[in-house]
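Rather than argue in generalities, we reproduce a single protein record, letters for residues, whole numbers for local backbone shapes, just as it appears below:
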Amino acid sequence: MQTDLTKQEKTPFSSADARSWALVAIAAVIWFALYNVIQPFADWIAYGLLALPKDSHLGESLAFFFYDVPKIILLLGGMIFLITLLRSFFSAEQTRAWLGGKREGVGNVLAAALGVITPFCSCSAVPLFIGFVESGIPLGVTFSFLTAAPVVNEVALVMLFGLFGWKIAGLYLLSGLTIAIVAGVVIGWLKLERYVEDFVWQIKVGKGANLPEQPTWTERFQIAWQSTKEIVGKVWLYVIVGIAIGAGIHGYVPESALAGILGKQAWWSVPAAVLLGVPLYSNAAGIIPVVSALMEKGAALGTVLAFMMSVVALSLPEMVILRRVLKPQLIAIFIGTVALAIIMTGYLFNLVI
């Protein structure tokens, strides 16, 4: 009993810990304040300072860019900090055992389910993905999360339910989960860890070596902050480039052109929908108006869902950001696996509905 008590008293809550908590609390308040002013600030720059018309292509592109860049950077920093702090309570082996060391496929199901309840677009899901990989969670499991988070969006689910009824909304949910699980399982089977950039593993090893056996809160916060600076410092430029591409597409690609191409029923409509969707950038809720337009033009349901899923799961900006942590071979395999699953799902829906 005395030994256990001694162990518990090794790391008492000190005055240094209290100061650290106060600093973190202040930083959290500043983070939330900044996050809440991003939208009006972006609109002010584009439409106020630059005096661009709100319905102009350039205005929409710049407002999108000035909103998404700080949003993604804030999410990236916040998520990496929280994940590293949480990971300080668990070893990489414990994390891997909880999410990835279960019976084949169970970890993928859990990760996909986590992705469903995580309200992120594809680029916003990247910070959590990086944190999962850095924490030692199996690669296939992390890809199940990365796919499910943007594909199955709760706002899009509600909108689909309102527009088309519960059957289509349910099919959207089921197909999105299936694609995420299957894609993660396939990537896990292929054992592609060698295609993750070396610095990701070096960060993981470094944190494990520097973390004391029973760290104080101050030590946990210091390590989380160091990890945040290190990862954000390596990926911020890729974030800006990726968002710039997405902003240009967002402002200059007309919905009418997409509806004109995909509003036709043909055998090639599903793969065409996926190919057109990959370079675009939007979240699932933002693409719903295009979905409605396509349906009005006579496009089959499977074609429409394939287009929506490719836009939100395989966006070009997401791939640019992922390139900082993944090698081109793994990105290509991920795109191919998810695209094939989406195409098969689209054809299946067109056959049964």
